[in-house]
């Protein structure tokens, strides 16, 4: 994809990264730059005059990060491109930072697990909780679990596993997500930030099933300070019971 540099130069002063630094110099800036993707799982930006790679970014796509295509979304300003990966997901990038703006879930092929994430609110102290759900977990045949928005299927990848994920569960309060797979590890994620809170190691085979306790909170403070338990099963023919760090 060819991106015009005039629009990028106007915003580079408030941006960070190698591409922004190069644009801010203002010397011998070509009218456009070229963005490429390939089998090396790298998105690269090139100077068409001398063929020098100005910056690169590792692929966030699953399926070993292979890219299929890159296309400009901003013909005039050159500030946005979209990549399509071997995982059939679309990722919108913002330039010149080369930051990921959003992810759209495409045709995922084989879906092995889906689970709504409960959201609780307590309108009054006397009444029970009101339970809703605006997001759900989606596990497909790759190494990136997905947190999917129920409206529009906007997606966030939970990145960290190194092999196919095959097991997932959500805590009863909707705060935590557990995932496990063929890399023999278990990861606990925050459902709010999508960040990995801890990694559980100990299985000698693929983690094939996970389960949190199913008792839902009675009020906003009912789970504070109590340990969170998780049970896991593996193809190593063992089951493990884990006591996770206390929630403050």
Structural description of this entry:
- By secondary structure, this protein is mainly beta.
- Helices cover 6% and strands 46% of the residues.
- The chain has an 8-stranded antiparallel beta sheet, with no helix packed on it. Strands 1-2-3-4 form a 4-stranded antiparallel beta sheet. Strands 13-14-15-16 form a 4-stranded antiparallel beta sheet, with no helix packed on it.
- The radius of gyration is 22 Å and the shape is elongated.
- The N and C termini lie far apart (48 Å).
State the gist of this model:
The chain has 248 residues and is mostly beta strands. It is 6% helix and 46% strand.
How many H/I helical runs?
Answer: 2
Give the overall pLDDT as a whole number: 86
Largest sheet: 8 strands, antiparallel
- Unreliable residue runs: none
In spatial order, strands of the major sheet run 5-6-7-8-12-11-10-9
* Order of secondary-structure elements: EHHEEEEEEEEEEEEEEEEEE
Computed over alpha carbons, the radius of gyration is 22 Å
Count every beta strand, where a strand is a DSSP E run of 2 or more residues.
19
Q: Report how far apart the termini are.
A: 48 Å
Helix share bin = under 10%
Derived structural class: mainly beta
How much β-strand is present in the residues?
A: over 45%
Sum up the overall morphology in one term.
Answer: elongated
């Amino acid at each position: 994809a060819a991106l015009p540099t005039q629009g990028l130069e106007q915003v580079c002063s408030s941006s960070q990264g190698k591409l922004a630094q190069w644009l801010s110099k203002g010397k011998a800036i070509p009218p456009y730059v070229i963005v490429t993707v390939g089998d090396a799982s790298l998105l690269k930006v090139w100077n068409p005059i001398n063929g020098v790679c100005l910056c690169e970014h590792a692929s966030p796509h699953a399926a070993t990060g292979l890219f299929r295509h890159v296309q400009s979304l901003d013909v005039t300003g050159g500030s946005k491109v979209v990549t399509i990966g071997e995982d059939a997901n679309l990722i919108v990038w913002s330039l010149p930072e080369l930051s990921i703006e959003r992810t759209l879930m495409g045709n995922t092929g084989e879906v092995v697990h889906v689970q709504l994430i409960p959201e609780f609110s307590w309108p009054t102290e006397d009444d029970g909780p009101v339970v809703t759900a605006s997001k759900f977990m989606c596990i497909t045949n790759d190494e990136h679990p997905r947190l999917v928005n129920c409206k529009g299927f906007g997606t966030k990848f939970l990145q960290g596993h190194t092999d196919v994920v095959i097991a997932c569960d959500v805590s009863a309060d909707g705060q935590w997500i557990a995932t496990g797979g063929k890399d023999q590890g278990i990861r606990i994620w925050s459902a709010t930030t999508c960040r990995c809170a801890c990694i559980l190691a100990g299985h000698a085979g693929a983690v094939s099933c996970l389960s949190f306790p199913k008792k839902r909170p009675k009020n906003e403070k009912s789970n504070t300070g109590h340990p969170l338990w998780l049970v896991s099963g593996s193809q190593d023919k063992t089951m493990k019971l884990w006591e996770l760090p206390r929630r403050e």
